[in-house]
Every structure is written in C-alpha cells, then in structure tokens.
Amino acid sequence: MRFTVNSSQAVVWLLALFPGVMAFGFLSAPDFDNPSAVLNTLGRLTGIWGMALLLIAAALCCRVPGFDRPFGGLTKLWKLHHRLGAVAFLLLLSHPLLLAFSAAGTSLSAAVGTLFSARPAVIWGWVALLALMIFMAPSFRFFGEPEYQRWKHLHRLAGITVVLGLVHTLLLSRTLPGVWGPAVWGLWAALAIGAIGYRWGFSRWHGRLPYRVVAIDRPARNVVELALEPQAQVLCYEPGQFVYLTPYDTQLPVGRGEEHPYTVSSAPDETGLRIAIKNLGDASRALQTVRLDSEVRIEGPYGCFFPSPDAPPEPELWIAGGIGITPFLSRLRHCARRGQVLRIHLIYCVQDETRVLFEEELAQLMAQLPESRVTLHFFYREGPLRGEFIEHACPDAARRSAYLCGPLPLIERASTALQALGVPQKRIVTEEFVLL
Ligand SMILES: Cc1cc2nc3c(=O)[nH]c(=O)nc-3n(C[C@H](O)[C@H](O)[C@H](O)COP(=O)(O)OP(=O)(O)OC[C@H]3O[C@@H](n4cnc5c(N)ncnc54)[C@H](O)[C@@H]3O)c2cc1C
Question: pTM value?
C-alpha cells in the first residue's frame, strides 16, 4: 500500500492524539460536574496530549533515509515535526495553568499549592516545562532570527525535556487507568527515545559514508562542484535527492565536522557523487577552499522531489533559482546518460547573465532532448518572476506538472503565479533550500 503525504500526516496526528482520546474515553460524569472539575479535566487532557505530541515530534527527528518519503521529503517532514512541537508546547504551557484555575475554585492558596507543590511529580513537571521553554523559544524566533548552528545545538537538547516529561508523567497515577498508562507511554517513549538514539548515536557513527574529494570544478566565482569518490559503501540515490555532507579537511577555517544539506548534482549511475555548493554563509564559503583528497562523510539520501523513475513521462515545467538548478541538473544528466525522453520546459531564474550556472552543459543536455527547452529569466532586467513571463515562455504551463527549487521567495512567487495560471496546487512540487 502506498501512503500519500496526507494519509502519512494523518497517521502521525492520530498517533499523537491517541493517548488523549483514550483518556477522554475513560472520563465519567464527575469529571464534568462543575466548572472546577471541567478545568481539572481539561488540565489533565492538555498534559496528556502535550506529552504525546512531544513524544511523536521527537520520534519524527530520526532521519532514517527513506522514512521521509511518505511525507513528501525531509523538508516537509521537518515542518510536521515543528507543527507537532509547537502545538505540544502550547498544550504543555496551558496544562499547569488549567489545573491551578481548577484549584482556584476552592481557594487561592489551593491554586498556589497546585502550582508549587513539593510533590516529586510536580517538581519534575516544572523542570521539564522550563527546559522546554529554554530549548524551544529560539524556534519561535522569540529572540529574533536564530543563528542556524546555535539553534540546532540548543534544539538538540530538547531531547532532554522528553525524558524529564516522561519522569513527570510516570510519577502521576491519573493519566491513563490500569495497564494502559505503562503500555501507551512505554510504546510512545520507545518510539521517541529510539529515534533520538538513532539520530545522535547510531547514524553519526554508522550512517555516514566516507568519500574523498577527487576533483573540484568551479562553474562560477562563488560556486564549487565537488566530485567525490566512495571509500567504502556507495550511496544509492535518485535524481533530485539531497544528502548531508560533513567535511573533515583539517585546513578548513570553519565548518569542519559540521553537516550541511546539499542536493546531489550527478546522475545516480555515475561512479561517484557530484555536489555543487554555493557560497551562502560561513560553512559553504569555507567549502569553496576544500582541498583535493580530503575526506568528507555523506549521510542520506533524503527527499523525493521528482516522480518515481518508473512513472510514465509527462510534460513538466521546471522553475529553478540560482543554485536551485542542482536537482534539475542531476535529472538531466541522468536522462542524457540513459537516453531517456523528457518533455520539459526549464525556466532558470538568475540575477543577470553572469550568474547562469552550468550554462554550456545545460545547453548540451537540452540539445539531446528534442521536446525540451530552457528560458532564462534575469531578475535585474525583468524584475521578479511573473505569471505573464511563465505563460509567454511556456504557453501550456497550466497543463504541466511544475517542479520548483530555489530560494523561498522565488518558490512562493512562482507557486502563486502558477496557481493563478490554473495549475492545481497538488501538481506543484517544491524543494526549498531551507530547513528551519
Ligand atoms: C534540501 C536542501 C538542499 C540544498 N541543496 C543545496 C545545493 O545543492 N547547493 C547549495 O549550495 N546549497 C544547498 N542547500 C543550502 C545549503 O544547505 C546552505 O547554503 C548551507 O547549509 C548554508 O550553511 P552556511 O553555514 O554556509 O550558512 P549559514 O549562514 O550558517 O546558513 C544559512 C542558512 O542555511 C540553512 N542551514 C545552515 N546550516 C544548515 C544545516 N546544517 N542544515 C540545514 N540547513 C542549514 C539555514 O536555513 C540557515 O539560515 C540546500 C539546502 C537544503 C535544505
């Protein structure tokens, strides 16, 4: 059975909501007797739902290659993880407040006593909640736009809150009755802790394949394309997929041992991998100087941008922005090597003529595909990409499936323009080069 993106997301939400729904089923009339009882019931349910959502959000961080496919790729899976985490955060914040409001029906001191009881369960609950606030606040841009690596290190510590929250939950007797409590929490905890263990333990040591830099090409002043040769196991991937690359060149000024996502630009049946990297920040700037013969490690592949290679070929519209050409380049190289037929129209958006990457190779590859063509869009001359430009370049755009890759503003603009031209949203596939 093949899961669609929507059904996969629905399964995740059902798993996340299941413990709370179950607890709801065990409620009885006294739980709704008076306003105070209702607030208490809501307080308990928000705690159960918040904890379950947090555990499932943690389970989604496993990053097992292939696990992201039913969700439409890793970038979409991360979005789901963030949504679950955000809802969990809000539910867990309201959990002690609702319990305190419920106790306030008796007296103010009862409300204060509920919030600041010396019971171990309450103390662990506060420790977990405070830790969650500290580790999650940067995700909400609470202190402004976070620096990616700092955010990542802090976010990783959110795993600790999962364990603290579990201690709080297991010390309480009223979450789920009888054996249901240990059974449900045990299973959900196993998913979360297993995922965290895989991600930060197993995959770090066994999931990263050793490769060596064997050639460096410079398609532009601020872009390198690295050719990598496997030192042991070979990575299998499809066009359009991306990997995490970790360089180990001892002379890199920054970013040594730091993983970053990059799309593979080579064809899957080439002997090694090729990865084109644009200077977009500290680590990618340093990579422009990576040395020949240095070691890199590759983890992946992730994403599922293009339709399955077995799917019947359909006319497609591709819109690439700048370095967002890499997935399209991989597919073109792949089809050219295999002599496969592609009916595509590529609109390649760059700032001006000097920024076109792989121009000669693109022209050569396109020449091998009689029903395909490329149109360049120059931002400095034509302004932002508009629907009229797309329609003029590709008059049957509305009948094609569209694949968009590049900076987020371009993707959003192109997506809106395509929908205005009549392309249904479900036929617009995007790959953003941002994960946060
Ligand atoms: C799916 C995907 C495919 C990509 N493919 C390519 C490609 O083929 N070629 C290319 O040049 N660039 C690609 N990128 C972008 C590349 O990952 C970033 O340019 C690079 O990570 C920037 O790191 P930096 O330290 O140089 O810059 P920074 O200034 O530190 O980061 C700039 C932005 O890049 C993102 N970023 C930084 N580090 C990471 C990380 N470890 N994990 C996830 N996101 C991060 C964050 O959104 C950050 O705000 C891709 C990104 C994604 C998500």
Answer: 0.91
